[in-house]
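Spend some time on the protein that follows and explain the fold to me:
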Amino acid sequence: MLKRWGFDYAKTGETEKRQYRKVAWDAVETLVQDHGLADIETIYGTKFIAFHRVDLHNGMRGLAEHEGVDIKLGHDVDDLDVEACTLCFKDRTKIHTDLIIIADGIKSPFVHKITGHPIKHSPTGRSVFRTLIPIRKLMADSAIRPLYEDEPSGFVNSSMSPAGVFIVTYPCRNDTLMNFAMFHKTLPSHNRRDSAFDWNAGADLEDAKRLVEDWHPAWKALTAMADGLKVYSVAHRPEIDKMHNGKTIIVGDAAHPMMPTHAQGGSMAIEDAAALEVLLADLKPDGDFRKRLELWEQLRLPRCATTQILSNAMFYESGLKKTELVRRYYQGPLFNLAAESWSEPIREFFYAYDIAAEAEKALRYKDLEGGIPEGGVRYFYGVDWDNE
């Protein structure tokens, strides 16, 4: 979709990921190495790319402003009316519009406006230390260098220590910065009301260093370089069964927050927007706007809920349990939901899906009572609906 929108990958600091490696926490010993990422473009049509979050935001903002979008910052919304399509701001001003899109993340206070009842997020007992480290600095350190030397760009993660700590690293911004994330049990100091679920809460590097005291020197040296460390608590929120109400829809983490297990949070938000683009593109001023939003929800809810369930697998007992949860949103053919997290069925589910093509199919049913019939679009991989 980024390519379809004219997003400039090179200008935005793309880094192509060509492998995944898991290295022992107590030794510089590769336990798992998968070069499958290098084949992603051949199989699915585009490369496996990571961006610095800020670079991705700036690139997409540039595209929006080029299209004439007027972005206003610092206008806090106090309330909204989903039927009248009215936004009420904290400065007591109001505006009326044609469509409201709620996109304010997992802590959104407006989810109940869509669902009709409160949906709360809760702590998982896990937190993440995070920062960015210049790669030239890492490679200049003889203790750290063996983790990355003579290897193509990709994900280099530690195994999980007996204390439940593991580290995730991957380069971004043209392979100049290393993203560093340390997952761990939430420390008492991270439960403060002012910092819980705060993406930008500051952290004490000494806390992180204590968590890897008995680790291999390479991982200890890497952690010691994590200047400017921040910490956030990983939250969980159950799936919602509605994504639209009146003339209002909810997208991204506000609609379907998920664990970072599969790195699909941002991807699902982009798909949400892409589907909306296609489904509203030919709508006339006197067209049935609500019916299009219902069509959008029909298209997005099964896929988003399934992605959320797969990503939140730590909360589910088995593949059977995951299947039961998915069946709340979708009754058609399913792939093996108990498959390992990086197995072919999981890759197919995420990467073989063409949201623009499926949204075009959904438009065929814009005038059909009840919207999309079963089998009308492809929510998942592996079923060629057009040839059945």
